[in-house]
Amino acid sequence: MPTTITFNKLRSIKDRLPDGTIHKIAHRLNLPVASVRNYFGGSNYDLGTNMGVHIEPGPDGGYVVLDDPTILDMALEVLGEK
Predict the structure, then answer these.
(1) What per-residue confidence (pLDDT) applies to 33?
(2) What is the per-residue pLDDT across 26-76, written as a single tens digit (0 to 9) for each?
(3) Residue of 10, 40, 47 lying closest to 25 (CA atoms)
(4) Are 23 and 37 a contacting pair, CB within 8 Å?
(5) Rounded (10°) angle between helices 21-29 and 70-79
(6) Is there a contact between 63 and 7 (Cβ–Cβ < 8 Å)?
(7) Could you write out the DSSP letters of every residue in 36-65?
(8) Quick one: pLDDT at residue 42?
(9) Which pTM was predicted?
(10) φ and ψ at 63, to 5 degrees?
(11) β pairing state of 3-6 and 53-56
């Protein structure tokens, strides 16, 4: 089920993750690290893919619709927010 979050909130979650978390998530899901970074707003499509992230203009950096919240859920678990 898609999840909607503001871009600034998504970036805040990514910025609060401990070092190495992006790599651990990528490893657990068997994804390129660049793909997980792209999920959090990165744009390296040479090494990674679009992870079902759709950004629409709006307040607080815009709205982000995530087709699959698995990566977000894993990040929130690491932060103790899920």
Answers:
(1) 92
(2) 999 999 999 999 888 877 666 666 667 778 899 999 999 999 999 999 999
(3) 40
(4) no
(5) 140
(6) yes
(7) HHHHTT---TTTS---SEEEE--STT-EEE
(8) 74
(9) 0.86
(10) -105, 140
(11) unpaired
